Amino acid sequence: MLKRELRVILISLVVSLILTAVKFIAYGMTHSVAILSDALESIINVVAGAFASYSIYLAGKPKDENHPYGHGKVEFFSIGFEGAMIFFAGVLILVKAVQYFIFPKELHKMESGIWLLGATTVANLLLGIYLKQSGKKLNSITIAGNGQHIMTDVYSSAGLIVALLIIQFTGWNWLDPAVSVIMGLLILVNGYKLMRRSISGLMDETDMQVVDRVITILSAHRRENWIDVHNMRIQQYGNNYHIDCHITLPYYLELNDAHDEMKRVEVLVNKEFENSEVEFFIHMDPCIPSCCHYCLKAECPVRSHAFTGEITWSRDNVLPNRKHGV
């Protein structure tokens, strides 16, 4: 899978390099600060693609003594770096726009510039769709983040083309730096979002969508010996996950039987998480009398209370560090 990820990101890098060159050609022809803004953002695509290539290579290295959970965290550094670069590009674009407001330049060959920008926008659209689909299929946050950035570039370029067409037919040249200001602000927001996601991953912020997915899998295949699941914590390392949790089992199970139950959990979740490795660290809790009223085990030899109803597993009772009903 590592080779596939590298191939995808290298395609992105080469295409972004070509499109960036075309945009700078369009700027040289037109002297439009808005087109320059788009070209500056595209430089970030190239730099981010190069950094992403290295991060994917590093994330694919096996675990070792110094990195017992693998090297996947580097992907969060990758999207954080990309976000910081995008943010810097937004600031640079705003500075350039203000300069053009104060010292306006005459625009040239707008029609040719619009055609070139239109061609790069279509190419970026196809690249963005390819990256987002590949990121989802390969479960790579680096590729998905790169695709998100490319799609943002597509939207801003499309808006820019509309503005340039208005300038072409009306002669309102003041729109050129005005549009550049809007683009700069949008780019700042996008850069902030990527940096925010990077910090969340590095700080091991819980991804509730992954929590819900794990809970759904365990609920759908619930066994009578799995009395409850609690104190669940999920950490992401690249496209792999480490899950800590407590599972309450009948206290009289032999060690081999209890181990087999935990192995079933690990195999089950890994089977459902395609293209990812899920490592479990499960603490086994013995049941207590207060568990009897929701225990599903029909033939329990030590039941002290009648069964009153099944407890549905959810974030509310799976994440806290306490047995259900206690």
TrEMBL record:
It is found in: Membrane. It is a multi-pass membrane protein. GO terms for biological process: intracellular zinc ion homeostasis. GO terms for molecular function: cadmium ion transmembrane transporter activity; ferrous iron transmembrane transporter activity; zinc efflux antiporter activity. SUPFAM superfamilies: Cation efflux protein cytoplasmic domain-like, Cation efflux protein transmembrane domain-like. Keywords: Membrane, Transmembrane, Transmembrane helix, Transport. GO terms for cellular component: plasma membrane. Residues 9-203 form the Cation efflux protein transmembrane domain. The chain crosses the membrane at residues 7-30, 42-60, 81-102, 114-131, 152-172, 178-195. It holds the Pfam family ZT_dimer. Its main location: membrane. It comes from the Bacteria. Residues 210-287 form the Cation efflux protein cytoplasmic domain. Belongs to the cation diffusion facilitator (CDF) transporter (TC 2.A.4) family. This is Cation diffusion facilitator family transporter. It comes from Chitinophaga dinghuensis. The lineage of its organism: Bacteria, Pseudomonadati, Bacteroidota, Chitinophagia, Chitinophagales.
